[in-house]
Records
---
Amino acid sequence: MAEKKNVSRRDFLKTSGIAAGALVGGGIIGGVIGANTRQDTAAPSGGEAGQSGGTETTESVRGLQFFKNQQEFAVLQQATERIFPEDDLGPGAIGLGIPFFIDHQLAGSYGENSREYMQPPFQEGEATQGYQSRLKRNELFRQGLQKMQQEAQGRFEANFVDLEAEQMDEILTAFQDDEVDMQGANAQFFFRLLRQATLNGAYADPIYGGNQNMDAWRMKGFPGHRPSYINEIESEDFVEFDPHSVGDMLS
Amino acid sequence: MATTLDKVDVVTVGVGWTGGIIAAECAKEGLKVVGLERGQERSTEDYSMVHDEYRYAIRYELMQDLSKETITFRNSRDQKALPMRQLGSFLLGEGLGGAGTHWNGQNWRFLPYDFEIKSMTDAKYGADKLPAEYTLQDWGITYDELEPYFDKFEKTAGISGEDKNPFWGKRSSDYPTPPMKKTPLLSKFETATSNLGYTPFMMPSANLSEAYENPDGQQIAACQYCGFCERFGCEYGAKTSPEITVVPAARATGNYDIRFNANVVEVMKEGDRVTGVRFIDTVTFEEFIQPAEVVVLTSYVMNNAKLLMVSEIGQMYDPETGEGSLGKNYAYQILPGATGFFDDQMNVFMGAGALGMTIDDFNGDSFDHSDLDFIHGASISMTQTGSRPIASNPLPPDTPSWGADFKKASIENYTRTLSVGGQGASMPHRDNYLSLDETYKDVYGVPLLQLTYNFTDQDRALHKYLTEKAVEIMEEMGAKTVVGRSPISDYDIVPYQTTHNTGGTIMGGDPATSVVNNYLQHWDMENLFVVGAGNFAHNGGYNPTGTVGALAYRCAEGVIKYSKDGGSLV
């Protein structure tokens, strides 16, 4: 069960004395020992390591571009893992590198709302009029993750990352049902954003830092970038392909 | 101080399909044309790494930068309109080719019924078939009059199709290229709809079935079925777009220049003529005046209407009195349909934007509406456009939207789900219209366009009826679980629906109830033309581009005539 693995991973982190943000997802340790990207992510999430031979690259060093506080990042890791958990099909959010994907997105135009209309006056409207908050996505994420931590303390007197899976789900559901107060924003919108960002990180091309080893594409049967299906489009049978990243075009 | 540029014969505001067609036709006739495009130059080479769902489909790489300009929206007049701060319901294009770059390539001619909808509905069902608040009107042109222009656009674009639909208008010639490949998935739809007594046919497609040279000498390549069309540009030059056809044709004459990063903020006028346009360089914010003998507004629906409004050309529509025409008859589309869950995995990730089969048995007036509380209908299609994994997470009923069960179900069903969808026609309503916002402005200080829009009882009735038809088809296709789309309530600008916005600068036969005549020439200013889906007096049951292309060729003919003879063209 995914829940059990989550717990055991947290136990490992506690006993190892290494901050969760540095280890889960494998970046820093993996980088230090020079393991390849696949092994970095597969090892801590309990998957099989190295089955198709990734290459050693400096990209295997992972770090944070937006979050400064490792506790906030750890909340993000656990929350996304609950949304997209590891199971018998394959890795979950942490194993896929989704928290790093989200961190990197929050540091750039996505997080800064650079292509959204952000002129005042800001005023609340009908749900059909869409999001009207003054908060940028990266501000919303920080507040939302801090609120999750506060909810964990308030409800269970524990850190979010130390909660049982069901307790994390209870808090996530409270956000989904808009039962948590946020400042200048609403919890339901934050939950939807978090959920969508998790799916973005799962299934975006690995050039963005998630979908490690294209494992989410493998689970789903999506081949990624292929130039043509003209020879297969009339096939009566389902055709399986080894996936390719659009980044392959540059190498 | 604005810099005044050398006068040209024709200036177009925007360079997508309409701007490109006007430019190509006028430049071939020897007119000096300048296209002002607020986005950037781009070409097939820019799409070589386009198979990137996140960048293009989720983060909207090719779409309008809303930080500079958006619209405001409300459902009804008693609400305060607020800005559409993020893209959602529809995707506004930007850059060379406009929406013609990121379209799917589904290319239709509106039905003969569409152009004479008021007369034909009244004649068959009586004048009170719909209540008076539905502001239906004829378009001031018939299908037969527009047919040569449809034909011309299809030959420019090399459309792939088959003339097997008994319900559409008579064609003067067959499609320039044969239909696309009929895949096993499309065959499922074909068999099911045939069993139900309908008449399926291959969707007319601008993803070409074979390489083609158009009458202008431009080459279009053969589609590779890679599954990345809508929201993307084509890396093969196999999805017909302005930048591989009419734009190079115009440039080849030597009479055409495009100025990029040029955001027009005003149509300048003197008495009953326009004199040119004022634009701002989006990079330097320098201001320019481009004088011209003829101005053609060729931007998207929203911006064409906005430019007329801020330039105070024409009479604003007033929903209280029904007077005025500018902003009137904004329409959209409604999307009935059904999703089917199957046992076997299917190649849903392969495809092309216009790879599909359609029935028109419930479109236009193909079926009797005597006992129905709506008019018109929808084309019903099954397309195989290429499902992509971020956006496609199909869930059977009662599946949670996150967590372990979500993950399992969305992965299981990604390759085991098909959809049948209708493009439901949208009838104009007194309370659905475009105007100028009084609070919010764009980055250049110009008021934003304001949209007041909601679904109507006609829409809800049409949606319900057509969804039932789609469910029957999906059941006949053998899905183990079939889910019809939920009934519609209020229009919501958040989720993506369709980029088939229409109206606001409608065409017609009467200056009191339309903005432009049937050459798309402005009723009040004879050297001003306004062309695009904004000319539609209502929205039909198909994608708009084929009809927009035809109107653009009609408009080009008008501009050329006007340049020679002057005066009103009607």
---
Amino acid sequence: MLNTSQKLNPKLFDLNVEQVPIRDGFGQGLVEAGEKNEQVVALCADLVESTRIEKFAKQFPERFVEMGVAEQNLVTVASGLASMGKIPFTASYACFSPGRNWEQIRTTITYNDVPVKIVGAHAGISVGPDGGTHQMLEDIALMRVLPNMVVVVPCDSVEAKKATLAIAENGKPSYIRLARNKSAVVTTATSPFEVGKANVLVDPDRAEVAVIACGQMVYYALMAARQLEAEGIKVSVTNLHTIKPLDMETIHRVAANSGAVVTVEEHQVVGGMGSAVAESLAKTFPVPIEFLGVQDKYGQSGEPGELLEHYGLGVKDIVGAVKKVIGRKKR
Amino acid sequence: MQTLTDDKKKLLAEKAGDIRRSVIEMLVQAGSGHTAGPLGMADIFTALYFHVLEHEPRNPSWSERDRLVLSNGHICPVYYATLAHAGYFPVEELKTLRQFGSRLQGHPHREYLPYVETSSGPLGSGLSQACGMALAEKMDHGQNSNKYIYCLMSDGELQEGNTWEAVLFAGKQKFSNLIVIIDRNNIQIDGFTEDIMPLEPLAEKFSAFNWHVIEIDGHNFDDIISAVGEGQAVFGRPVVIIAHTTPGKGVPAFEKKYEWHGKPPTKEEGEMALKELRTLGGKIKSEND
């Protein structure tokens, strides 16, 4: 079922598939980016360990700055650093950065078009017990609406490392979204990754539905695809890791190949990845779409698995959405 | 920085007069924009661009230049007029202020006019950016940076939380090359600062955050230049110069009136102002002279 050119984790469907927090990949990638380019610097707003910026801070103390609990200053100081030639990575929880400092990001980073990297950790409902205040569900919308901003949502820790290395050198304001919990490792070191180029992980000649997912929902989408295949329903699965710039060509191709789309994201359905897909397809190839995400609500405390299920992001929900959208196709 | 001779002082006064007249002409032509702040800051801009700054107007991206961040972007008419009179672009271009296709946007946009170090307008974030520039220098050169980072701020934007995050940060970093000048003109859009949201005791606030504080008359070139000189000599502490200025300075009808914060002169008011400024010559004096 899996597209072999994607070189995915061969143990992907094992019950004991390796589970690693996506943020760990960021931490590793940042150290490597720092080794490759001495202009890479890092700033953190009192969350050094949990954002995984700790490794960089230890290896390059002279290039790391603790900003304290001050997210507006975090990104605006970074803007000043970038204007002097530095490549600053700024880390906090997504609900605070870009949640609290959106105007500073707009005016001093994207309006100036300077290469500051916003690292939004603890995004999504899977943050778990901390509850709704800390489960950022609006960040993709906030960031993708800004001209000049690149928005990347890695599907696992391996991809997060590659994404971190890529945005360190892209010369653009960039947002990278990270999750807190341990999640399945879907890709491998040799899986293709390019910012702005979606990866079609399951790519049958003829699919009934194109499932498009980002973040850890990619794993859930693959699990749903396997279950659907067992029922005789073939779907494609696309890892849309870059929300901006959007790979309209691949989105068009998978939509045209199936005639129906299901989008899956750990974000509000308003303004997120699904909205970006819909905006694109409305222009190129309108098809019925089912949007899976948080349906205009806030989260609450709980374990990641039970929360994802409660808010309609479980494997069974994806299976159900696929069947529903098939019913909406024009015969 | 060179000492200020009497001849140079005379030249600065003339330049400040040219810049004030340009400000009035620009605002009348644009039909919108801010009047009081630009007139009040003309002497400080003149002192900086014609005496203090290490810069090369004909090589604006010279990497070793001092950096100047204008945090309160709404006073950009005086910024643009100063840049033009300093040779960054033709004075003639000033009349395009706020027009479609102009490089002189209503608030500075670096993408349109690369001679400004940053885009600004939304208040309270310039100091952080200046701190970022000072930090980049500190990372590369420790306390031995050969560049000064200047940040010009309004008093009104001291009401922004972001400003105080930066004030804390600069105190922590013990910058040796950060000099902030606050335009203490006591007015903001809705009224006098002390009525809207009191800032005093202001000098004590900065001292308490481990800054070196200097208070000056913002229309006295000796004061301005000696304060900057003192600021350059201070080691291991960020410097704030609280410059007491008269909003609308140079046109008595506009002075000290908050109503002139955010509106331009009409054609008639502009003519009256230009007449005042023409007859003023080098007569702008501080109230203490």
